[in-house]
Request: fold
Amino acid sequence: MKYSAMTALAAIGLVTAMITTAGTAQAQQAQPEVQHLTLYVMPDEMGLVGPDKQHHDSFLPSSFVLKAGEPVQLTIVNYDDTAHSITAPDLGLNIVVKPGTHVAGSDQVTPVTTTFTFTPTKKGQFRWHCIFPCDKGGGKGWAMKPAFDGQDGDGFMAGYIEVI
Reply:
């Protein structure tokens, strides 16, 4: 059988395309997918109602699940005019959430977004809490009282990060 130069070039091109495509697919598979999670910080008057029947500053959601070894992009939208944090010492996290800004001449707050990217490496359940004393809670401040498992009220300014 005789092959022309064109046939040989076509065969080389086909093999090169197959190798390039396979290499690209492998490279794409090797990079972990980025997990996206959006949290909202709500001020007292917009936050959840606690057992004391008062509204409290609240992170929504306060507990969430992440995958170990995969990057996470946290987007935190703060409707409150004070800074907050997501502090989880066992995960090495201390994210400071920027405060919302007041609209000139009103009591309204323009929400501000904080974005933070990290990769959880340890599996398990990790408690986080806000390190800033912020919750007025109708003057009672119940959600900010230290407890046996850390500062803040679960479901309000504290929660759990489950890494699977």
The first helix runs from residue 5 to 30. Residues 1-20 have pLDDT under 50 and may be disordered. DSSP finds one helix and eleven strands in the chain.
